[in-house]
Amino acid sequence: MKVIKTIAEYRKIRCSLDCPIGFVPTMGYLHEGHISLVREARKKNLSLVVSIFVNPTQFGPKEDFNTYPRDLERDLTLLDDEGVNIIFCPSIVEMYPPGFDCWIEVTQLSNRLEGIARPGHFRGVTTIVAKLLNIINPDRAYFGQKDAQQASIIKKMVSDLNLDLKIVVLPTVRGNDGLAISSRNVYLNKEERKAAKILFKALNIAERLHLNGENDARLICNEMTKIIESEPLASIDYISIADSNTLNELDKIIKPALVSLAVFIGKTRLIDNIILN
Ligand code: PAF
Question: 21: which residues sit within 8 A by CB, 6+ positions away?
Fold first, then answer.
């Protein structure tokens, strides 16, 4: 496994990599969610590149960029064990040199859900992902369904900018209690970790109601709200049932719908989602 820190160094070896090249972009502090992407990418591609870069431009001024968990040594060991060929872990100045002034934005999809709660977040994500795709030049790039809106926005960017690669979105990895695995779960204390199960419980209620023939989105949201409000440590940021392509809110569920939610457990903001078909 080679660890590469500069764009010039990566470009020198890019032409010697066997194709197809799979790429898993990450912000490090790897968990089972990342590893599931890495394993699938390993199976389907002859070369595998993983990037580790905590991207400052996708964090708001009051968000956790400085305290975001990092452990490069541990990440490198895990990735070596998974048979990754190249780790790309550039510095901030390598990706954003002085005077950097170019932004990529998928405007409509970015101004909903997470985009309302985290202004500018998706502009940072699409800008860094576009740069990474341009540098790594993979045949396939892998993302998790846990960040459903991010995955939709990246697919739209790739389509609108005619980027020549396939975006692969893989299912959310969950703990035994249903909690979606996320780097931010480390912020939860024991009590909060237990309380966090309420997100998956609420999503399950939505699924069960829909399977029993309920199509009224507002009614389903109300039931989800009741469940979450029964947990004293939880406070709802949003619950949404939206068209899974446009992310427009739905009144009636008549096509694939993204049921998503953001909930504070104590001070930690968690997101999760399911698709109702
Ligand atoms: O999902 C993430 O970890 C990040 O948003 C990504 C895609 C690596 C861009 O920084």
Answer: 45, 46, 47, 48, 49, 136, 137, 138, 139, 140
* Residue 3 predicted with pLDDT over 90: yes
From the CB of residue 98, how many other CB atoms can be counted at a distance below 10 Å?
5
CB 12 within 8 A of CB 24: no
Tell me the pLDDT band of 277, cut-offs 50, 70 and 90: confident
With a cut of 90, say whether residue 255 has pLDDT above it: no
Average pLDDT, the chain: 97
Site residues for ligand 1, CB cut-off 6 Å: 25-27, 55, 58, 125, 128-129, 147, 150
Q: Are 29 and 39 in contact (CB under 8 A)?
A: no
Ligand 1 atom 2: residue of nearest CA: 26
Closest atom of ligand 1 relative to the 26 alpha carbon: 8
Average pLDDT of span 29-35? 97
Q: Evaluate if pTM is beyond 0.90.
A: yes
Q: How many Å apart are CA 103 and CA 124, to the nearest integer?
A: 8
**CB neighbourhood size of 254 (10 A):** 9
Tokens of 79: 């990735």
Question: Alpha-carbon torsion 142, 113, 178, 217, what sign?
Answer: negative
Q: What is the pLDDT of residue 260?
A: 98
Beta strands (DSSP E) in 138-256 are 140-144, 166-170, 234-243
Condensed to tens digits (0 to 9), the pLDDT of residues 115-151 reads 999 999 999 999 999 999 999 999 999 999 999 999 9
- For ligand 1, pick from 24, 26, 68 the residue to mutate: most ligand atoms within 8 Å of CB: 26
Residue in 23, 24, 27 to alter for ligand 1 test, most ligand atoms within 8 A of Cβ: 27
Is 34 a residue of the active site? yes
